[in-house]
Design brief:
The protein has 23 helices and 14 strands. It has 591 residues and is an alpha/beta fold.
Length: 591
């Protein structure tokens, strides 16, 4: 990497012109930065450590002395669950990543990349063109960041397998048909596309969560086979295709552990992977151990050891929590990624990256995750967090305190409360009572206070749109208030209270329309437009259903009806309910 060129690119956004950066040779494992007037003298270190030292200088840190326990310190950005980050916005992220000390960026693209001759691959999904990938690759390389493609070559391909032209390579639901020649013709094209667009020879070929492997067309053709054998057969073929192109593949490791578990659980302590299965894993493939869910250092150390017992040095995938969240979840990130980082440090794991998923529609403001990435970088490189806030402000151009204040949006199952139908109340009837959540009134007050707090920061958009976060808090507070008063007023047949609920429901409908405008601004600033239609449909549903609620109350109050059947149809025994949009939007099956 050419440091002069990197500084030139960074100077297009950051005030580097008033400083003179001097790079001196030294120990590559250690980077020392000191300032001498306008001179910033950086001695030793890898290019990633050197650019991190540049970031420290921007933050006004007079001197630093840092090492990294990791040779690879990266991220994985989900570009497959509706939100495909715009190339210009991704370049903005790459500048921030470089100054924080990251040296790898993986793009998780199930079908969101162009394959010549496959027009339905990524159709209407905002796929990256090969030209865009080449441009992003060159830009990342100029900042010392390895851009790595992460694709899927077995499962998680339901978006293409729904099209008629791919039925011949479909085993079941989202899984490719192992052993079918056309399957490997398609994978050939996948590898050619990604391998030709990106300069790195490393490639992540996925293969996780293939639960339906061998259960569809494969079963019809070959009968019941041991899943381990089907999996290794396919992996061996795909690794061979990678080798033909000089590609160095890695896969997620979960299938081996899940197939070895009586309960099909990745993290089953009683799971056993037979020795013949381990022996059949191609030596050329790396295993990626993903784990975002444990807060115990000992658990990570145990699972790292289990990977090593398979004769593999694992790549660690931790997580900065963005999935099924309206904002970056600070608590889960610091709790779980913190334990993971410490375990990796103790075990000497050399490669780690932090995933940012978009499960359930990518409705998180992904820019807010920069706070989690900055925290993770500080935890990995620095002796303490004393410079975190200053570094974040200088590099990410936002107040760290304000961004993490907005993480209050992740409290109290907020997405489920946002998507819950206001009349059916599936989550408030089933989900809230099943766990030790606060009362609706307490949750409502939490969001009232959060909206008040965030009002002071409503103009900040650099690392998450804090005005949008404030509006989300207001919408949640008002919607929850409607639900709580609806149930109380209906059960008491309090006409005055119900009239107030109807008026408030109409106000909430208008608030959802304002929220859509805010959501659209942020989405279009960050992402390609494809996928936003899902958010629009959900918000429009909330608006019209709140208006429907008001109409139903009016009918009740005027005597047109004597009951609201959905409010009478409540469970006698609570069993619990998940928080994804689809099960909360309706009790019917047409969605």
């Amino acid at each position: 990497m050419n440091m002069t060129n990197a500084l030139r690119i960074l100077a297009e956004e950051y005030p580097l012109q008033d400083r003179q950066f001097v790079f001196e040779p030294g120990d590559a494992s250690r980077c020392v930065m000191r300032t001498d007037g306008p001179r910033v003298i950086i001695t030793g270190g890898t290019s990633a450590l050197q650019l991190r030292a540049v970031g420290a200088a921007l933050a006004g840190v007079c001197g630093s002395d840092e090492t990294s326990p990791f040779t690879t310190f990266g991220i994985m950005l989900d570009c497959s669950r509706n939100a495909v980050m715009r190339p210009d916005h991704l370049k903005r992220w790459l500048r921030r990543l470089a100054l924080l000390g990251f040296n790898q960026c993986m793009l998780y693209t199930e079908d969101t990349y162009e394959i010549p001759g496959e027009p339905r691959f990524g159709f209407q999904r905002g796929r990256y063109s090969l030209a865009e990938l080449r441009d992003l690759d060159a830009y990342a390389a100029s900042l010392g960041i390895e851009l790595v493609g992460c694709i899927q070559t077995l499962a998680h391909l339901e978006q293409i397998l729904r099209w008629p032209e791919y039925q011949g390579v479909k085993d079941y639901e989202s899984v490719l048909l192992v052993g079918e020649p056309k399957t490997y013709e398609l994978i050939d094209k996948m590898l050619d596309a990604i391998g030709g667009a990106l300069r790195t020879r490393r490639i992540h070929i996925g293969m996780d969560e293939a639960w339906a492997l061998g259960r569809g067309q494969y079963l019809d053709r070959h009968g019941q086979q041991r899943k381990f054998d089907i999996f290794n057969e396919h992996l061996t073929k795909v690794v061979g295709l990678c080798q033909q192109r000089g590609l160095q593949p890695m896969i997620w490791s979960d299938m081996y552990f899940a197939m070895g578990s009586p309960t099909h659980n990745y993290y089953d302590l009683a799971g056993v992977i037979p020795p013949d299965v381990v022996a059949a894993i191609p030596q050329e493939v790396q295993l990626v151990y993903w784990d975002y869910y444990h807060a115990e250092v000992a658990f990570y150390r145990d699972w790292i050891g289990r990977h090593r017992a398979m004769g593999r040095e694992p790549v660690m995938a931790s997580g900065v929590w963005t999935w099924s969240q309206l904002w970056y979840n600070r608590q889960l990130t610091e709790q779980n990624a913190g334990a993971c980082l410490e375990a990796c440090r103790q075990e000497g794991v050399q490669e780690i990256f932090f995933t940012m998923w978009g499960d359930d529609g990518a409705y998180c403001d992904f820019d807010s995750a920069l706070a989690g990435l900055a925290w993770a970088a500080e935890r990995a490189h620095a002796a303490d967090n004393s410079n975190l806030k200053a570094r974040f402000t200088a590099i990410c151009r936002a107040s760290y305190e304000a961004v993490i204040e907005a993480a209050g949006l992740t409290a109290n199952c907020s997405p489920a409360l946002l998507w819950d139908d206001p009349i059916l109340g599936i989550f408030t009837n089933e989900g809230l009572p099943a766990r030790d959540w606060p009362s609706l009134t307490e949750i409502q007050q939490h969001f009232v206070k959060l909206a008040e707090t965030l009002s002071a920061h409503a103009g900040q958009t650099a690392a998450g749109d804090l005005g949008h976060a404030r509006l989300l808090a207001e919408v949640l507070a008002r919607k929850i208030d409607v639900r709580a008063k609806l149930v109380a007023g209906y059960d008491a047949r309090d006409k005055a209270a119900l009239a107030g609920v109807a008026a408030n429901a109409r106000d909430v409908a208008r608030l959802f329309e304002r929220l859509e405008e805010s959501w659209r601004r942020g989405w279009m600033r960050r992402n390609k437009p494809h996928g936003y239609e899902v958010i629009q449909m959900r918000l429009a549903q909330q608006a019209i259903r709140h208006r429907e609620l008001a109409r139903r109350i009016d009918e009740l109050l005027t005597g047109s009806v004597t009951t609201i059947p959905e409010l009478d149809d409540r469970p006698a025994e609570v069993k619990g309910m998940g928080g994804g949009w689809r099960p909360l939007a309706s009790g019917s099956v047409s969605l």
